[in-house]
Amino acid sequence: MYLPLEHKAAIVTGGASGIGYSIVKGLARAGASVIIADMNEQGAEAAEALVQEGLNVTFVQGDITLSADAQRIASKAVEHLGGLDILVNNAGIYPRSMMQDTTEELWDRVMSINLKGVFLMCQAAVPWLKKRGGGAIINMSSSHAAIGSPELFAYAVSKGGISTLTRNLAGALTRDRIRVNAINPGWVATEREIEVRALDGQTYEWLVERGKMLPLGRLQTGEDSAGVAVFLASDHASQITGQIIQIDGGNEVS
Ligand SMILES: NC(=O)c1ccc[n+]([C@@H]2O[C@H](COP(=O)([O-])OP(=O)(O)OC[C@H]3O[C@@H](n4cnc5c(N)ncnc54)[C@H](O)[C@@H]3O)[C@@H](O)[C@H]2O)c1
User: What pLDDT, in 10s, does the model give residues 96-119?
Assistant: First the structure.
């Protein structure tokens, strides 16, 4: 069987649930050994389920907003997997709040997890990627990075920062053969998204119906993101860096 990520070692932050867990499965089934880095201890069970499938997946608990944890996650990955080739910065939160209702505390929390955490993980991982002679970083952005999203004010700004970070770091790391790209997953009905929408009285069924109105006729799935992440992590994407890939069912172009 062709395994595009055979012998590759990867970290997926926020890999215990939702889109991150789909990406963990995608990378591991493509042959990679994967560390789930998540603050939620449910990551242990998530990893175990994949070990039962014969995949090489390990859980490391940590909070990416703390530089000591980011460094520890990267070192544990190297200790456990023998090196590091792929970093997927997926952990993120998306509390709904207009600008006037956004408290300083909420702003700081969103920026800390969605933006500072990505910076700290890149800082911790890059020396190890360099030691391998190259690698791939994939950041989770959002379509909200590029459009006005008044009800997701801090979130949209943080994801705009991810787009800038991605292009900036891509340029800085070309000579090290480290490719840095981002994916924008559109609209995915993860458990968290369903919970957040429920606060506005919007049900799962409402979400699915809204999905049918998208140009390509459905909501996106975690597997849609996983497929693109596997591609970007693989040698098939060896000439692709600094790009932001929309996985939005044609929303942007219609
Ligand atoms: N669901 C969507 O429609 C959608 C759309 C576009 C982008 N995204 C982005 O995709 C990513 C995942 O979203 P999801 O819907 O799967 O959410 P999710 O809540 O299911 O997953 C996020 C994971 O990140 C972990 N996490 C949060 N803070 C952390 C921290 N400080 N340290 C370590 N781990 C932490 C959580 O424990 C959780 O397991 C986020 O970055 C989100 O912004 C989601």
Answer: 999 999 999 999 999 999 999 999
Question: Is there a single domain that holds both residue 110 and residue 200?
Answer: no
Q: What is the CATH number of the domain that holds 139?
A: 3.40.50.720
Q: Which of 45, 96, 138, 142 to mutate to test the pocket of ligand 1 (most atoms within 8 A of CB)?
A: 142
Which of 138, 147, 133, 94 is closest to 118 using CA atoms? 138
Write down the pTM of the prediction: 0.98
The catalytic position among 2, 94, 155, 204 is 155
- The token duo for 96 is 């709904």
Does the annotation mark 155 as catalytic?
yes
Q: Are residues 38 and 70 in the same domain?
A: yes
Q: Are 39 and 113 contained in the same domain?
A: yes
Q: Which of 106, 75, 86 is nearest to 180 (CA)?
A: 86
